[in-house]
Structures are given as structure tokens and as C-alpha cells.
Amino acid sequence: MHTDAALKIAITTGEPAGVGPELTLLALAHALLVEPPIWPDVYFTVLGDSPLLEMRAKVVGVDWLALLATGRIALRHEALSAPVTAGQLNAANSRYVLALLDVAIAGALAKSFDAIVTAPLQKSVINEAGIPFTGHTEYLAVRTGTEQVVMMLAGQPNARAESAALTTSITSTSTQHRYHPFKSSCRPGQAFRVALATTHLPLKEVAAALTTDKLISTLRIMDAHLRRDFGIKKPRILVTGLNPHAGEQGHLGREEIEIIIPALEYVQGLGIDARGPYPADTLFQPRYLDQADCVLAMYHDQGLPVLKYATFGTGINVTLGLPIIRTSVDHGTALDLAGTGRADPASLLEAIDAAVTMARYRRFPESNLGISV
Ligand SMILES: NC(=O)C1=CN([C@@H]2O[C@H](COP(=O)(O)OP(=O)(O)OC[C@H]3O[C@@H](n4cnc5c(N)ncnc54)[C@H](O)[C@@H]3O)[C@@H](O)[C@H]2O)C=CC1
Ligand SMILES: NCC(=O)COP(=O)(O)O
């Protein structure tokens, strides 16, 4: 039975041919079919097609009825438009994928959900259905009427070993759980966080998309969220340059001088501890990262490969700047693994844990000790 104090989290199961449905089941089984359960005060609404979830539960060995019997999961059934074969995309189901998101977003805006957690979707197949779509991040901004959002990924570089142990234990509904996703021993300074000044756009459009105003608002959003959701009193943000060697004093590009440095000077005047621009090829080393709370990279493949090299499979993605809480996994649809039970739910567990923690902090700000990723 829900109480007013209980947190309510919506999980969208994403692309039906991908790993999202089975990872949702595996993550919830791992959290709820154990003793003691993880997140005892949290209720989940799973958004997806009911027969699909039942079928994937069988395939990956999760007892779906036992999960429902916990009383902590409500299924919000949305019907698929076409039958699904794991690993095979079908543009006919693109509207279904977006309908899951729309229901979750509307519920979060109406405060029926404290947070939404999204399993991965396939951006290409939505476009193939004739719907312009670049990602959850941009879609969430539009659907919530938010002018600017910031994509930030975060992870613990040392979490990989723990995740390996998880894969072998996850299908078991035994009372032991070997993996606790909330790594409370990890203080904010030990986490690796990378935010992006631009998100999903062709590389040739990146330079034109960077403006001083956009960087200023990006840094302001980051500073505010790192304080509020991550419990960091005075966040330090290190900002990359755009060009090789941060422009080599203007000889290899002028965006640093004309766009990035003016933005840094402006936000420093507001009391934000943002520094740079640093050459991206040498910034990602302990000497810099140990003194920082987050890196702001100028584009997707400047920052994320480094973060994913260190944390892939156990990291999270958070959309900053929204009026609602949204977290997600650090990986995609993994079509090659869909329906095999071999995909690792560790990142989804982390994403749920981060959503729970953020939601709890927003409800009870005095308890904010900092999210652990
Ligand atoms: N939040 C989201 O909805 C995201 C969606 N995507 C989308 O996913 C699609 C596929 O992207 P790719 O670049 O192929 O990346 P991917 O992450 O789906 O796959 C890359 C490699 O990592 C493996 N992998 C991914 N998740 C795994 C897991 N949980 N356990 C074990 N191995 C895993 C895959 O098997 C594959 O070998 C694209 O359409 C992309 O846009 C990508 C990232 C995030
Ligand atoms: N590589 C991260 C990514 O593509 C996240 O996309 P989305 O969360 O905006 O769908």
C-alpha cells in the first residue's frame, strides 16, 4: 500500500526489440526479490506492453508474477503496434516507444511520479518511422517546455568488478544479493562526471552550435544541479576547449578566445568555479580530475568515450535543467544481446538508484548528503 512518503518511480522500457524490457525485469527482480529489498520505500510503475514483458521475463528467468506480488510494481500497459522479435527493429513500434515516454513525462509533470528512469531506445528507427528524433534528452526538453537542458553522464571508475559479479547472480531470486547499487562509501569527489555543451548533432554543426550565452546557461544549470542533487557545496567544473590544444592561442581555431573564455569569465563573476578551457586530450588525467566535480566537454564524442572507457556498464545519464527528474542508462539498445539474458542490468540499477536518491533529496532537502555516483 502506498503512503504519502513513498517515492514513485516510472520506468519506460524503451525499444521493444532491444534490451530495455529484460533489463527492467532483471533490475527490479534484483532489487525487490531479495531480502532485505533495496529501496523499501519506493513504488515502481513499469511502462510497456504486458505480453512482451511476460515473454521476456520467461526468457531471462525472472518470475514476473512474484515481482507483481511484491505489491511494489504497477504495470502501465501500452500495446505494441506490431509483434516484436528480439534484436529486430520495426519502425511500426516507434509510436509505442514515444507513447511510453509521453505517459511518463505527463505523470512526472503531474507529480504522479517523483522521477522517470528510461531504458534505451533506438534513435534511428524512430526517424525511420518519419518522426524527427535525436534523443530522450532533446525530446524531454521539448515535451516539458524547457528551453535548455544539459546531458551529464556519471560513473565510478572502479565499479566494473562489482558489475561482473552481478551478471552471474542476477537471474536468481535467492535471498542473497551480491550487488548493492548505492555505493554510499563513494563521496562526490571520487565520481567521474562529464556534461556536454552540445548533444546529438553532426560533428560539422558543433562549432556553430556553441555560443557564449549557451555555455553560460549550461554552466549555471550544472552548478545548480551539482549543488542540489549531488550535495556538492561549491562544485568545480573543468571546461574543455573545442579545438586541438584548446586552439593553440588562436592558431588552431578561435572558439576558445571568442566563445568559451568569455563564458567562463562571466560565470566566474557569478561565483561559479568553472575553469579552462583545457586541451581535451590531456584534461582527463587524475591530476585534474581529482580536483574537480565535473568536466564540461564541447561535444558528445569528446567527453563520453573517456567516461565510458572508465565506467561503461555501470554509469548513468542524467538530464539536468528539467522540471522533472530523469535518469537513464549509459548504454544503448544492445540489439545483439536482446532476448539472451546476457545484458547487464548494472547501469539500470544505478540509474534507478540515482533517481530514487534525487527524488528523496528533493522531498527532504535536509537529508542531502550527495548522490553517490
Ligand atoms: N538512453 C538511450 O536511450 C540510449 C540509446 N542509444 C541508442 O542505442 C542504439 C545502439 O547504440 P550502440 O552505439 O550500438 O550502443 P550500445 O550501447 O547499444 O552497444 C554497444 C556495445 O555495448 C554492449 N552493451 C550495451 N549495453 C550492454 C549491457 N547492458 N550489458 C552488456 N553489454 C552491453 C552491446 O552489446 C554492444 O556490443 C543507438 O540507436 C543509440 O542511439 C545509445 C545510448 C543511450
Ligand atoms: N550517448 C548518450 C546518449 O545517446 C543518451 O541519449 P538520450 O538519453 O538523450 O536518449
Automatic annotation (TrEMBL):
Pfam families: PdxA (PF04166)
Entry keyword Cytoplasm: yes
Cofactor(s) the record lists: Zn(2+); Mg(2+); Co(2+)
Binding site for substrate: 136-137, 308, 317, 326
Positions contributing to a divalent metal cation binding: 200, 245, 300
UniProt keyword annotations, A-Z: Cobalt, Cytoplasm, Magnesium, Metal-binding, NAD, NADP, Oxidoreductase, Pyridoxine biosynthesis, Zinc
UniProt subunit comment: Homodimer.
Function: Catalyzes the NAD(P)-dependent oxidation of 4-(phosphooxy)-L-threonine (HTP) into 2-amino-3-oxo-4-(phosphooxy)butyric acid which spontaneously decarboxylates to form 3-amino-2-oxopropyl phosphate (AHAP).
Protein name: 4-hydroxythreonine-4-phosphate dehydrogenase
